[in-house]
Description:
Blueprint: H1 7-24, H2 28-47, H3 54-77, H4 83-90, H5 99-123, H6 131-155, H7 158-166, H8 169-185
Helix pairs in contact: 1-2, 1-3, 2-3, 2-5, 2-6, 3-5, 4-5, 6-8
Amino acid sequence: MPKPNSIDAVIAALNAIIQQCKNENNPLGYFAALYQQVSIKVREGIANNYFDDGPRMEKLDVIFANRYLDAFDAYHKNTSLSLLWNKAFEQSKNYRPIVLQHLLLGIHAHISLDLGVAAAEISGTDLPALKNDFDKINKLLSLLVNKVQDDLAKIWPTLKIILQKTKNVKNFFYRFQYAVEQGWRMGIC
């Protein structure tokens, strides 16, 4: 399958991974499903002129997504890939992690490694020019928190009980978003 060169192609590639993982009963599909939701929101944002530079954001989305898609492909072909992605993918063989842990492993690898590389590639020496749109993506992500929680509770009913008892999962996601924003300010991502 050729590398996606548009956000629609990214969404289609993610859909193929989701279907493959469903067929294989593979928990790696959880991250792909979450990522597909994010890509759809970014596509909607581009279509609605939400971003300062829609074409640049599509390029960023495609470059960013291709890093994940390349890692997924490398893992399944048993070829070289980053340690972060390898650790995240290897956990799919372990029955112990819960859905949220699988998501966090994917998020960690993708944000900690791939986001900085994709942002640097798209912005070159003018990384600050990307900041406003980067912040807008974070706002879009924060809007997905409740939907993700509801979707997770459908496949993992224990989460509903945890959410009722702790009411802190949303704060966790917001703290994660804050950490990413702080990383941006410090030049880490």
